[in-house]
């Protein structure tokens, strides 16, 4: 898709006219725009988490390794490859596993 096609498809969508090329319409509105929105949201979340780390630890060079976020991400990625719905498992499992380790180490609870 070249920029002229993108503009044409967007104008057709805005004017409520029937799309001349349904495949380009589907590619733009079903695949590309959701990916662009997801990339913007993920980038914003990563920058926000980096700013929070810098604020909490008062260190401008703080790394995600400090709290084990990188290790949790690796566990989630490996789980998602091996088990269906692995992303959900990683999102729930990594903090739960970290909590269990903290509980065991401190003897709380």
From TrEMBL:
Protein name in UniProt: Hemin transport system permease protein HmuU
GO biological process, one term: siderophore-iron import into cell
Gene Ontology CC annotations of this record: plasma membrane
Membrane-spanning segments: 36-56, 83-102
Organism: Clostridium formicaceticum
GO molecular function (one): transmembrane transporter activity
Major subcellular location class: membrane
Keyword annotations from UniProtKB, A to Z: Cell membrane, Membrane, Transmembrane, Transmembrane helix, Transport
SUPFAM superfamilies in alphabetical order: ABC transporter involved in vitamin B12 uptake, BtuC (SSF81345)
Family statement: Belongs to the binding-protein-dependent transport system permease family. FecCD subfamily.
Annotated compartments: Cell membrane
Membrane topology summary: Multi-pass membrane protein
């Amino acid at each position: 898709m070249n920029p002229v096609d993108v503009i044409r498809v967007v104008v057709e969508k805005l004017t409520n006219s029937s799309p001349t090329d349904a495949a380009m319409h589907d590619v733009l509105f079903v695949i590309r725009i959701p990916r662009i929105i997801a990339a913007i949201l993920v980038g914003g979340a990563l920058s926000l988490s980096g700013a929070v780390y810098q604020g909490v630890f008062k260190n401008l060079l703080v790394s995600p390794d400090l709290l084990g976020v990188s290790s949790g991400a690796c566990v989630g990625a490996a789980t998602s490859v091996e088990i269906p719905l692995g992303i959900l498992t990683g999102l729930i499992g990594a903090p739960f596993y970290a909590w269990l380790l903290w509980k065991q180490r401190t003897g709380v609870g």
